[in-house]
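Why does residue order matter? Because the sequence determines the fold. Keep that principle in mind as you read this record.
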Amino acid sequence: DKGDNPSAALGDLSSYFDFGNTHAYYTSREPGTIGWGRPGVSPCEPWRYGAIQYNVCSAQRVSGSKPVMSTETGWLVDVDSPVSVPADLHGKYITRMLLSHFRLGIPRTYIYQFMDSGSDGFNSSGLVTATGDERPAFKEIRTLIQLLQGGGDVEHPSAVPLALSGDLADVRKIAFEKSASTTYAMLWIEKPAADR
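Structure:
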């Protein structure tokens, strides 16, 4: 979206597909970025280009009430570029992004890319390097999967008793019910983890 409001031009096409999609990159920003550039247009005006809420809102203008998938997303890692992030930050951001997407109702997120390859300028976005070395993001995702796997379907409970105090403006949370007796509450502070 370069400001010419393509979602409005397309209109509601939800009868032609089962899912909407967003294809979002966060440049060097955190997953909960408020975006950058100009504000969105109605009904997406609370957000700016680059914010996942803006992308979902724009997709829903075309997909209606259908679920929205994130069909490609990620960060450049450890390259000489102002939109790249260091590998350790990539690991933190990937986990926060996955949890944020799920929290916003995005049922599936496709990360670009599994392994570094190519020479298109995006060849350093992998969860593993071109030589097969695991980056921190790979390890973070593996840990998240290990934590939530097994025991049947993992559900998103409607309420979890949890008391927090202090400045909670940037605290985000989501809970996963693994079984009748096990619930995991995940919390994070949605702020940049490095200076830009």
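The mean pLDDT is 87.
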